[in-house]
Design brief:
The structure holds two protein chains of two kinds.
Chain A: E1 2-12, E2 16-25, E3 28-34, H1 42-45, E4 50-53, E5 58-61, E6 63-68, H2 81-90, E7 93-98, H3 109-121, E8 126-131, H4 145-151, E9 155-157, H5 166-178, E10 182-185, E11 198-199, H6 202-207, E12 211-212, H7 215-231, E13 235-237, H8 243-255, E14 259-263, H9 265-269, H10 291-302, E15 308-309, H11 318-321, H12 338-347, H13 353-367, E16 382-392, E17 411-421, E18 424-428
Helix pairs in contact in A: 5-7, 7-8, 8-10
Chain B: H1 16-30, E1 47-52, H2 58-69, E2 73-78, H3 90-99, E3 104-109, H4 114-119, E4 125-131, H5 137-151, E5 158-162, H6 169-180, E6 184-188, E7 204-206, H7 209-213, E8 218-221, H8 237-244, H9 248-251, E9 259-261, H10 274-277, H11 284-303, H12 306-311
Parallel strand pairs in B: 1-2, 1-3, 3-4, 5-6, 5-8, 6-7, 8-9
Classes of the chains: A alpha/beta, B alpha/beta.
């Protein structure tokens, strides 16, 4: 199968940014022909079987969401690997990293293998499982990292729960280092805000909701940076939401600590005031923060402190969300809104298009030891984005099994139109 | 008279005119409670449901007496007896309530915002009888009524509210009501009990109880709960009583005609000394009496309308 992606702006940061044709032969990129340059090989390869007109579009290396929760095994009514992969494809993602807090927890070979088997039956989006740091996420004993790595795990995390024991975190960083595995840390000291349900501040005070101060996150960010420094292990900070965390990561990077960080679109799009009239679709952990924090997160993305945009896609049904705010579950879905929300950063001038592609493709690939490139011989994992498509976000049309998003009804500009994994089109937008 | 608003969820959503209408109506209601036959037929045929998801003696009784004096039919559901203990969600309870078509649902709930959830889903009027740490509008209205009766007007008064502001829905509703009526409000308590950004509610903050009481026209004391010891909010009741409690000596710093208030239930000897609670400046029992009048007014306004009352 020979495919020609014609006339798009090919943005592969560090390699190419310009209008070019991308030719795909089966699962690999055959050649990239910049506009105005003669295609010397066209006669050799012959006419394409398929032409994708990408005029006015962005052709990017395949996007990766390195932080999602698919609820299989255990809570399939919220999301399965199949529906999660469909949502990822529709959101422009060629790969996802699934967090281990399923039921049972992904803390052993069998669960990892099950996830990968289910992924084989899904739409083709690549699933890279993240396994637990500690058995059953209990913070008491290490999982079998070597075996998990052989099974296909790309990183370790107790996401959803912090690793409270500093000793266990130290050992995890050290032990994982031996197998070249990354530790993804959910930074939270829950003892500091035992009843907190939203950001601590004037909004929470007015609404009579218990607050979660920024220090709940930054205390653990600083601890984990200290432990990464001590051990030389590879640390990735999940869902950064506060200005103090951004500052801590920035300073650690300056010192040469092996630390990377991600944030989620909601942290640079919404603030605590958007909880509005007790909207449980604006309840997540970490919580939406203040405007100052939102600005600091954007600054962190702009100056390279925050490497990655990941969604923390957390599906919940009405059973968990149509409840009193105090009782509702944390988390929102993000796969199908990440691209348009992130493109707002390009529209506002905070990031260049190539910066954005770094945050959503190149950097997660580098951190996870994957590759995403648009050059001859590379695997053809590509995302084609129409940066000008204007539309209204309608959660009813989501491929995800859940609808817990605060962005339903939002006006958006820009959407993924083709998601291509190993040369196969796994998503094509209608119209 | 035009129909009043459907729900009373918090003070900040009420207009100045609505607050005045409630207080004026409450004044009219007071007289009914003084009659030998304390009952008018105004809400005859109306159904009022008391949905108390959290323990309450005073507020619940006050609302029940108010409803009965207006001849409404009343039904009570409490958390321990309701289907909530069987795992029914608030929304399902709400749907079931609606199916029985009550006119008013009075709700007390431990979660902030629970009355808002009901308000959006029920045709019945929702009266918030206290939600989490958020609001207790009928309490604030009865506090305003009590002060207005004694002082004529709240404008320009210096009102100190002392105690566990962080965990007090009464304080939040009082802040909203008192500042709206033009009073100067001082929030006082140990820093552990002053929530973040409280100044945004238009009040000033001090951690010095003497400073708060000095020159005050009204001193409102809040109940200190022993459970707060577990969250390390204070050290001992003994120390709290000395540092933040209202005693005779501290009260001397206030204006001579100061009013001493407390939303109850009182912890005698902790936040307020017995001689002050029972002293001449105390209007704590006036608050309770006014509570019935204010709740009659609220029920009447949302379920009846003043014209009906006149016609009767």
């Amino acid at each position: 199968m020979l495919t020609r992606i014609k006339g798009g702006r090919v943005v592969d940061p560090g390699n190419i940014d310009g209008v070019a044709d991308v030719w795909i032969q089966d699962e690999k990129i055959l050649r990239v022909v910049p506009q105005g340059q003669a295609d010397e090989n066209s006669e050799v390869s012959g006419a394409p079987d398929r032409v994708i007109d990408a005029g006015g579009m962005i052709v990017a290396p395949g996007l990766i969401d390195m932080h999602v929760h698919f609820r299989e095994p255990g809570e399939e009514y919220k999301e399965t690997i199949e529906t999660g992969c469909a949502a990822a494809a529709a959101g422009g993602f060629t790969a996802v990293c699934t967090m281990p807090n399923t039921r049972p927890v992904n803390d052993c070979l069998q669960v990892t293998e099950f996830i990968l088997e289910q992924a084989e039956k899904a739409c083709g989006v690549r699933v890279h499982p993240v396994a637990a740091v500690s058995r059953n996420l209990e913070g008491k004993a290490l999982c079998e990292y070597a075996e998990l790595k052989r099974a296909g795990v790309v990183a370790l995390s107790d996401d959803g729960r912090p690793v409270m024991s500093s000793l266990l975190m130290r050992r995890a960083l050290e032990y994982a280092k031996g197998f070249g595995l990354l530790i993804i840390s959910h930074c939270e000291d829950p003892d500091l805000a035992p009843a907190g349900v939203m950001n601590e501040g004037p909004v929470a005070t007015r609404m009579g909701l218990q607050g979660i101060p920024n220090a709940v996150e930054s205390i653990m960010v600083m601890r984990d940076i200290a432990l990464a420094e001590l051990t030389g292990g590879r640390l990735h900070i999940a869902h950064v939401s506060t200005q103090e965390s951004v500052r801590a990561v920035r300073e650690a990077k300056k010192r040469g600590v092996q630390v990377t960080a991600e944030t989620a679109p909601h942290y640079f799009t919404l603030i605590d005031a958007d909880v509005g009239a007790y909207n449980t679709h604006a309840k997540m952990n970490p919580p939406l923060r203040s405007e100052k924090d939102r600005e600091a997160v954007i600054q962190g993305l702009a100056d390279g402190t925050i490497d990655v945009i990941a969604t923390d896609h957390a599906p919940h049904s009405s059973l968990e969300k149509d409840l009193e705010f105090d009782l509702a579950a944390n988390g929102i879905i993000g796969l199908e809104t990440s691209v348009p929300l992130s493109l707002k950063l390009v529209a506002s001038g905070a990031l260049s298009m190539s910066d954005l592609i770094r945050k959503m493709s190149k950097n997660p690939a580098r951190i996870l030891n994957l590759t995403r490139e648009i050059r001859p011989g590379a695997i053809a994992d590509l995302t084609i984005i129409d940066p000008n498509a204007a539309y209204r976000i309608n959660a009813e049309n989501f491929r995800s099994r859940s609808r817990n998003t605060p962005f339903d009804g939002w006006e958006a500009i820009g959407k993924p139109v083709f998601t291509i994994v190993a040369g196969e089109i796994v998503w094509r937008a209608e119209g | 008279m035009r129909a009043f608003r459907k729900d009373i969820l918090d003070i900040s959503s009420l207009s100045d005119e609505e607050i005045s209408a409630i207080l004026d109506t409450a004044e009219q209601m007071k007289e009914i409670s003084q009659r030998p036959i304390k009952k008018v037929p105004t809400l005859r045929g109306k159904t009022v449901v008391f949905f108390f998801h959290e323990p309450s003696t005073r507020t619940r009784m006050s609302f029940e007496i108010a409803a009965k004096r207006l001849s409404a039919d009343t039904v009570s559901i409490s958390a321990s007896t309701s289907s909530m203990v069987k795992g029914e969600t608030l929304i399902d309870t709400a749907r079931n309530l609606q199916a029985m078509n009550p006119d008013v649902v009075v709700i007390r709930h431990a979660c902030s915002g629970a009355p808002h959830m009901l308000a959006g889903r029920l045709k019945a009027s929702i009266l918030n009888a206290g939600d989490g740490l958020h609001a207790h509008p009928s309490q604030a209205l009865l506090d305003m009524l009590t002060i207005r009766q004694r002082k004529g007007d709240l404008k320009g008064l210096r009102i100190a509210i002392i105690g566990d502001i962080a965990h007090s829905r009464v304080a939040r509703s009082d802040f909203a009501g008192f500042t709206r009526m033009g009073a100067e409000v001082i929030a006082c308590g140990p820093p552990t009990m002053i929530p973040c950004g409280i100044e945004s509610l238009g009040v000033s903050v001090t951690h010095d109880a003497d400073e708060a009481v000095r020159g005050a026209d009204v001193v409102m004391m809040l109940r200190i709960q022993k459970e707060r010891l577990k969250g390390f909010f204070f050290s001992t009741e003994r120390e709290y009583a000395g540092a933040y409690g209202l005693n005779a000596e501290r009260l001397k710093l206030a204006e001579k005609d100061v009013l001493v208030m407390h939303p109850g239930p009182v912890n005698r000897g902790v936040e307020i000394s017995p001689e002050i609670a029972d002293g001449p400046q105390s209007v704590i029992l006036d608050q309770v009496a006014n509570g019935v009048a204010v709740r009659m007014a609220l029920l009447l306004l949302v379920a009846g309308g003043v014209r009906d009352a006149d016609a009767d």
